[in-house]
Amino acid sequence: MAFDESFDLVIVGSGCASVTAALTAKSLGGSAVIVEKQALFGGSTAYSGGIAWIPNNPLLDDDNEEDSRAYLNAIVGEPDKASPVAKREAYLKEGPKAVQFLLDQGVKLIRVPWPDYYSDAPGGHEYGRTISAALFDLRELGDWQDRVGFFYGFPRLPVGSWEFVDLTLAKTTWKGKIAAMRLAFKMARDKLTGARTVGSGNAVQGRFLKAALDAQIPLYMETEIVGLETEDGRVTGVRVRDKNGERSIGANRGVLLNAGGFSRNAEMRKKYQPQPNTGEWTMVNPGDTGDVMQMAMALGADIDCMEEAWWTPGSLLPDGKYGGFHVPGESGKPHIIIVGPDGKRVGNEAGAYMEFGQRMYARGAVPSWAILESRCLKNYSWGPLLPGKPKKPWIDNGYLTVADTIEELAQKCGIDVEGLKAEVARFNTFAEKGVDEDFKRGASHHNKAMGDPSHKPNPSLGKIEKGPFYAVKIWPLDVGTSGGLVTDEYSRVVREDGSVIPGLYAAGNITAPVVGHTYPGAGASIGGGIVFGYVSARNALGAN
Q1: Nearest to 384 by CA among 369, 399, 373
Q2: What is the predicted pLDDT for the residue at 164?
Q3: Please, are residues 464 and 371 in contact by the beta-carbon 8 Å criterion?
Q4: What pTM does this model have?
Q5: Among 117, 144, 146, 145, which Cα is nearest to 129's?
Q6: b/e per residue, 65-94, with b = 16+ CB within 10 A?
Q7: Tally of CA atoms within 13 A in the half-sphere of 104 that contains its CB
Q8: DSSP 3-state assignment of 474?
Q9: Domain residues for 164?
Q10: Exposed, middle or buried: residue 414 (CB in 10 Å: 0-12, 13-18, 19+)?
Q11: Are 320 and 399 in contact (CB under 8 A)?
């Protein structure tokens, strides 16, 4: 068919895979365009903590492929449709190349201290395999500086997401005090100079957007995909709609779908996801509606892991807005447990957030309850509450439930009284010994990093015995669904029989991820997006 215009690679969506793929295509002599239906650039990556888990990448001088493979296999488990052996090998072998490519393109990336989430597993890394973008001044984007997406719950501050763990310790450790002073200095400097320095997902997508603009990659904003064009079974382009109407864009070498999952699609969440959940607890960008995924499914694309999401258990404010992602950076502190309606703990409060969300559903503990002892709120931050600050406003508006005894707290929250009493008593014996016999909280390097190093004998375990006691509802918030189109080691979308849909690629949250039903380290979702954005463009342009 005749197209209104054509490019070698048409990229749908502007998440972390998109610029990586566009720059890769251009480096190979091809042309690429990024088509984004939102007015703001960056997809859910811009909303995120902006970190990427990519094993053995060039910024790591203490990792190797053998350990990375052992860890990935140990955590993800047996190969399956989402994570076959060939795809894992591509992740391990192409990931370092993707990072080096971005560095060569002038994208300033840095290593950050975030231990693997199962750091005590075979091949686990105690410092971590996570990278991010260096802080970025949005003014470098010129006319585009107000067009990077952002999550309202994360203030646009000159701080990286990994530094928030230190900030939670500002009242109890020198490391926390120094982190707070450093942030205050940067904020004062920006106020004086007029700089607009940002970290986390804004820094990642700010730097990626700058690289795309410098490379003169066409960016079609507020342009919605309304269909995939095919010819003889091959995807040859897309139909789009913008303020000027509909037109067609041809893809000479392929279409890459990086349009996110289905977090904000109530019907799909009811069909595929554990319940209750219709998407009201998601914190992703408004464009994450599943429409592009459904277009690929209509072409016969296979799907997997549709029941999963990147669960980030947290609280909601009385008006329904984001109150905080609490597991594990805050719930990993002493004097806190999270229980279900039976009063029993849900899992390791200092462990991996995705696993904790899975446990909430498996236990029928939606919502769960965070039980906070008086010393917790005195010493540590908790969502909107700063340590030692007045709690009455949060009690009055219903965010906090307070009681003088555990029994009374359980009654107010509708938690089984005897169950909670027994669980608190059992947990207190663990805290005294420094050993969590039920969930091993505080045993791994990652768990310890989420705790308070000044607290002994275990930085994550503290008794719950001094009133008043507080409770906060915990919901299975998420930062995106993590199931979708099945792809092979080249990011090609495949059918149920394993055959490839020619011309169709996918990366990011629209796919069934290489990490399957797990989350091995901070930034595994973004890491996979970057790597397979790079891989897809190379395959489409004939480089692998």
Answers
A1: 399
A2: 87
A3: yes
A4: 0.97
A5: 117
A6: eebbbebbbebbeeeebbbbeebbebbbeb
A7: 11
A8: strand
A9: 157-195
A10: exposed
A11: no
How many domains does one find in the chain?
Answer: 2
Residue 372 lies in a domain: yes
What CATH code is carried by the domain that includes residue 412? 3.90.700.10
Which residue is it, tokens 């016969």? 300
Residues 6+ apart with CB under 8 A from 316: 281, 322, 323, 473, 475, 477
What Cα–Cα distance (Å) separates residue 34 from each residue in 9, 255, 396, 426?
Answer: 9, 10, 48, 55
Q: How far apart, in Å, are the Cα atoms of 300 and each of 237, 255, 271, 296, 340?
A: 17, 16, 18, 7, 40
pLDDT in tens, 45-64: 999 999 999 999 999 999 99
Give the whole-angstrom CA distance, residue 492 versus residue 503: 8
* Residue ranges in the chain modelled with pLDDT below 70: none
The answer to whether 284 touches 479, Cβ cutoff 8 Å, is: yes
Among the listed residues 526, 459, 460, the one whose alpha carbon sits nearest the alpha carbon of residue 50: 526
Q: What is the 3-state secondary structure (H, E, C) of 413-437?
A: HCCCHHHHHHHHHHHHHHHHHCCCC
What does DSSP assign to residue 382? B
Q: How many CB atoms lie within 10 A of CB 438?
A: 13
Q: Among 453, 476, 499, where does a domain finish?
A: 476
3-class DSSP state of 195: coil
pLDDT tens per residue, range 362-379: 999 999 999 999 999 999
Say if residue 2 is exposed, middle or buried (CB neighbours under 10 Å; 0-12, 13-18, 19+): exposed
Token readout for 526 is: 């973004």
Q: What is the pLDDT of residues 458-501, one digit of tens each?
A: 999 999 999 999 999 999 999 999 999 999 999 999 999 999 99
Residue ranges with strand state E in 181-264: 197-198, 219-220, 224-231, 234-242, 245-257
Which residues, in sequence order, are bridge partners of residue 231? Answer: 234
